[in-house]
Structure prediction request, 191 residues.
Amino acid sequence: MAFALGQMQVRGAVAALTRVLRDPAEHSMVRHEAAEALGAIASPECLDALELASRYTCQVVRETAVLALHRLRHAQGAAAVAAATNAAAAAAPPAADHPQSHSLLGSAKERLSAPATATGDVPPAAAAAAAAAAGLDSDSPYLSVDPVPAAAASIPTAELRATLLDEDADMWERYGAMFALRNRGPGPEVG
Prediction:
């Protein structure tokens, strides 16, 4: 359930997820999912719970909380960029072929998954900024809120693979490599 709440970015679930995260009687994987969900929601009220959990003795929960904190800060930075981009787009007069009906859809996921003709299309910079603010990777074929943004598409597959398999590498970098590889789709079948 925590995973789904995080993917839907349900801000109303923050208090319940925080209680689960703080409860040492809960299984560590349940607490891990709660921390990951708080990172996906990435609202300011998630910060205290994740900072506290980043000092827990349970390694699984602690490492997830550290990643979730990093993701939250990344999302806050992306939201600031999105706000600036959207303010600039709002100040510009709309083109005749770009009506502003896109605001009729709810979340950034809905706006990204809707056909451009249904949304009235928005300037690409504004759409990318909205995706980043929602925690979506504009290079990803999946509409998921990942715990870490995918590494740059320009990084060669062999380098991503090496990073993913390097147990001494930073977890943020390893996850970024993993999601970049996922975004590229299946490789050649080995058999």
